[in-house]
TrEMBL record:
Protein name, entry field: Peptidase M14
InterPro entries named among the record's database cross-references: AstE_AspA_cat (IPR055438), N-alpha-Ac-DABA_deacetylase (IPR053138)
Gene Ontology molecular function: any one: metal ion binding
Cofactor(s) needed for function: Zn(2+)
The keyword Nuclease appears for this protein: no
Gene3D superfamilies: Zn peptidases (3.40.630.10)
Length: 351
């Protein structure tokens, strides 16, 4: 294993940020290569501890000569966001200087060629970071961006061009659901990883062996040793299933049996009033049309101080808010409906 340190210049003199990159060299140039990163939203830590648990497994595989394809690991991909605190609260989703989401505004290239990327010396610190992360990741066959939701199931976002080819990956990782998408106008990291392959020859795109996905590892508070070990085993199984690693003791993944639905089926359920949220459902629950999902207490103690929210269709509760204070119009949860949502959204679901 080789460790290097990446440095990103800050937006004022004397300020810079750094993060480590770990590289395991494969023995077969024809084998799929992999790139894994976590905490692009710097406060989302389930992927960080999963990588921490995965590293000894990769080190052991390296010592035993079982790494076939190059594997690049970035355990904490956002040193800019890691350093951001405001009144004692960590702020790792948006860059405080530009107010841009750290997982938006990545360059969407016309081809998988790092020469098309902007100069890493240009732009603000968050823009330079995004360019550098793409430089590190473009060209790999397997690209995993590890995130988490507020409270939720483990699920993947997958571009339609990669499904059902990636069903083995979903099964290997043991996720509960897959959300399929086909449009990215916001420049997410996942979009920047797969869109360059959409208009290139089939022998370059290689969708049958390509993996690019945003992994949502449940919720913000799901950071513990047992979950980390389980997630690390899922990542390891994926790398074995796709040929980046060799482990003859592992069987091939079973068929994926979780929920698979297009993005347009998701109802986000905006809150009709501001107040305290009393949820009737939790992630993983199946609901019928008309079932009560939550109650908003907007005028405590008053006879008409509660407003109920009901399911617009039958489906699966994928996520919900971790905090119980809500503003009017703010989304309450993700309901993966059995049919297209009446207010179907394209692109990213949230800011």
């Amino acid at each position: 294993m080789q460790k290097s340190i990446e440095r990103i210049a800050g937006d004022s003199e004397g300020v810079s940020y750094e993060f480590p990159v770990f590289r395991f060299e494969g023995s077969d140039r024809a084998a799929p290569s992999a790139y894994l990163q976590a905490a692009l939203h710097a406060g989302e830590l389930p992927g960080v501890v999963a990588i921490d648990a995965l590293m000894p497994m990769l080190t052991k595989a390296e010592a035993e000569g079982r790494i076939q394809g190059d594997v690049t690991i970035v355990p904490q991909a956002n040193p800019v966001g890691r350093a951001q605190y405001h009144f004692g609260e960590h702020q790792g989703r948006f860059h405080l200087g530009t107010r841009n989401n750290f997982n938006r505004g990545f360059p969407l290239l016309a081809a998988p060629d790092t020469k098309l990327l902007p100069d890493t010396a240009l732009g603000t610190a968050d823009q330079r970071l995004k360019t550098r992360l793409l430089q590190l990741s473009i060209g790999h066959d397997i690209v995993l961006d590890l995130h988490c939701d507020d409270e939720g199931l483990a699920y993947l976002y997958v571009h339609t061009s990669l499904w059902p080819h990636m069903a083995d990956c979903a099964a290997a990782m043991g996720v509960d659901a897959v959300v399929l998408w086909d449009e990215d106008t916001d420049g997410t990291f996942e979009g920047a990883s797969i869109m360059p392959y959409q208009n290139v020859p089939a022998d370059v795109a290689r969708f049958d062996r390509r993996v690019a996905t945003t992994v949502e590892y449940r919720g913000m508070l799901d950071v513990d040793g047992a979950l980390a070990a389980s997630d690390a085993e899922g990542l390891y199984r994926l790398l074995v299933a796709r040929g980046a690693l060799v482990d003859t003791a592992l069987p091939a993944p079973a068929p994926f049996t979780g929920t698979v639905a297009p993005l347009e089926n998701i109802d986000m359920m905006p809150a009709p009033r501001a107040g305290a949220v009393l949820y009737d459902v939790k992630p993983g629950d199946r609901v019928t049309k008309g079932a009560r999902l939550a109650t908003i207490v907007h005028a405590p103690g008053e006879a008409d101080g509660r407003t109920e929210v009901f399911a617009p269709q039958a489906g699966l509760i994928l996520t919900r808010r971790s905090r119980r204070i809500i503003r009017g119009g703010e989304d309450l949860l993700k309901l993966v409906g059995d049919s297209k949502s009446a207010d179907a959204r394209s692109g990213t679901l949230e800011d």
